[in-house]
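S.,

Sequence below, as promised.
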Amino acid sequence: MNVVVLGAGAVGGYFGGKLAAVGVPVTFLVRERRYEQLSAHGLVVESRHGNFTVAPQLALSASEIDHPDIVIVALKNYHLEGALPQIRALVDKGALVLPLLNGVSHIDTLVHHFGANSVVGGACYIEATLDTEGHVVHTSPMHDIIFGTLSGKNHPLLSELEAAFQACGVPARQSSSILIEMWQKFIFLTSFSGITAATRKPIGDVLSDPVTRPFLNDLVREIESVAKAAVNLSENAFEQVMNKLSSVSPSMTSSLHRDLEKGLPLEIDSLQGAVLALAERHGISVPSVRSVYAVLHPSKDGSRS
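The prediction came back faster than expected:
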């Protein structure tokens, strides 16, 4: 099984690095600046599950990669359109596309371009970031990954990938209902990222505040109501999300919050903005989501020159 990781940021670097560290053939398809950084220093991962460094196999273009079996797309949503030609080149060589992007709307984009048989669904739960030296810093125990075909049938390549992740200590699971899993994560992530970025606080501070916690409850309820208009979620989806929010480390925050602090562009259009668009389509009132989106919108394009 030959794995390509498109993007060697925090998520792609961590999961691709874990596979490479146990001998799985992994090629990181990256841009020039990241290529130079990784060529000079290796892929360095600092994790609560153990630090490690690998000398990664790198490529600047899909044309350099032979016989790809799976391409893990680990990009920000606002970079997806620009990456479509590279993904197309890999799909034409036989690769299955496994996206680990935030949100859910990217699935429609990928299926439109490459067909349902070439695209699978995926979701991951991880808190990780890149430090100033480009090292992957994994800051909480969570590093779960879920994937599955859109049809719900098992796929031999995904079974092989599941075994490879489990062999390197990553809790991985092939799901027969991946779209529901992705929507469940969407509720969690959109509420978690929105509240931590809007308050500039970790989740523990939010949950312990007598004013902010009820606002978070409203946020989750609104996103759940929109999700249920799109997919057949379980009746206790709200309780599942609130339990997960309460079970993570109190010091945990979101990549959206970290991007805000770094002055980077924000993925609010594929998260909170996507909820607003779906809510309007289905006639659902989401005032809490609209408030979070409005608070973050002035920073959407980042502040870096």
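The chain has two domains: 3-176, 180-299.

Coffee later?
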